[in-house]
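re: ur question from earlier - yeah i can do the single chain one, its not a big deal. heres the input i used so u can compare w yours
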Amino acid sequence: MANVQPAFSSVGKKVRLSRIIDPRGTLIFAFDHWLEHGPIDFPKDRLDPRVILEAVVDAGVDAVMLTPGDARLFSDIWAGRTSLIVKITGKTSLRPKEDQLLQSIIGSVDDAVRLGADAVAATVYWGSPWEDVMVWNWTLIRDAAEEYGLPALQLAYPRGPTIKDRHSVDVVLYGVRSAVMVGADLIKTYYTGDKESYKKVIEAASGIPVLMSGGPRRSTPIEFLRDLKDVREAGALGAVVGRNIFQARNIKAMAKACKLVLIGKASPEDAYEEGIVE
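and the output i got, formated as tokens:
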């Protein structure tokens, strides 16, 4: 029988995923909020992205997810210190309300390769009136990434006029299963609010790694840390977190606390009581 060797691209994808994934619990820092939401997300002393990025990279996150322009501008911070995921879709909140459910192309897979990225990311709003446009863009991104052996992370967000509760288990697992069916290598999606329901989401992913979307800042740090513990115990790979880290009182401490909880080195209570997140 012939010795069938894997395709070059599959080897490259495996290598790059190994740079991003910590099998104990993976923490990716998301930082596309200036584009998506504008200055409303940022405390006045953190309008300079360098302040935030330096803190999270120092904390030891497994990867940062940046737009192409920020990846280039701040390469002196992340290069050689953590993995880079380039997000190549986006939108602004300045758009008319009726167009908020569309993500546009803001970069290319070639940009990601030139920047030295280990993966690319793109959003699909499942249930949006613009779903067909985003799915088509996704397939183009996925195919181009495959040519280079780059993993493709899909931000699988169910959003649309027919969706009453985007965090309900049926809606979230529908979006996750859809992401699997269009070839996602990694999936970021909403938390359903409890460990048992999130297990159903993980099951729907059929072995494709799922990462919880951090979402808006929780009322207390320990509340968010408990969510991280629950999603990890449910079988998620980890989390992609932005605001719950960079809006915290101490950015570096909160990032470290998130990582410790995800890898099981500290309980949420210990992280909170020992002042890790202060």
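The radius of gyration is 18 Å. not sure if urs matches, ping me
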